[in-house]
Amino acid sequence: MRDPSSPATPAPPPAPPDAPEITLLESVRSVLADLAELDLPGDGTQRRGNGVILDRLAEELSEAAAMLRALPARPAEMSGHDYALLAALRTAHASGEDVAETIARALARLAADLGGGGKVISNRPGSWEAGLVADLLSGTIGPDDEGLPVFGGAGASL
Q1: Are residues 134 and 117 in the same domain?
Q2: Model confidence over 46-90: pLDDT tens digits?
Q3: Is the dihedral of CA 34, 67, 84, 111 positive or negative?
Q4: Farthest-apart Cα atoms in the chain, separation
Q5: Number of structural domains found in the chain
């Protein structure tokens, strides 16, 4: 038992974060700095540089998420875009949306951006998954992509 009249032993200083944690911290600081650069007037006008800043933020946040997952004891079984897609689907489901319709709409917008339904599945056209996606796209934008203009086009904004 410690004598209450003796001075307390000071606690050792906290250990400095490991290099990966420092890199993650710096990445998050970069995100915050970019966020502060946004010029959002709130009057419906869009500032020209905001798109560039938001694109940079998206990249930096994806990198930070990948760094976080790479830290020890973190699961790394999914890629960053899988996490982003899962988060979007969870949000849609939680808000009561028809998730199947959300997926169909997203695939149709991707097809419009890429220039056709076939381009969506061009990375693995013979897979069973590609066959199901092709069927879904055919039902959404038509078998000959005739409904594609409804969902935008190359370079269209979300």
Answers
A1: yes
A2: 566 777 788 778 878 877 777 777 776 665 566 777 777 877 888
A3: positive
A4: 87
A5: 2
pTM strictly above 0.85: no
Distance CA 92, CA 81 (A): 16
Q: Which domain holds residue 101?
A: 78-158
In degrees, to the nearest 5, what angle opens at C-alpha 117 toward C-alphas 112 and 118? 135
CB 138 within 8 A of CB 108: no
CA distance 114 to 116: 6
Quickly list H helices, 17-98. Answer: 19-37, 50-70, 80-94
Cα(87)–Cα(62) distance, rounded to whole angstroms?
Answer: 13
pLDDT tens, residue by residue, 11-36: 655 555 556 666 778 878 887 887 88
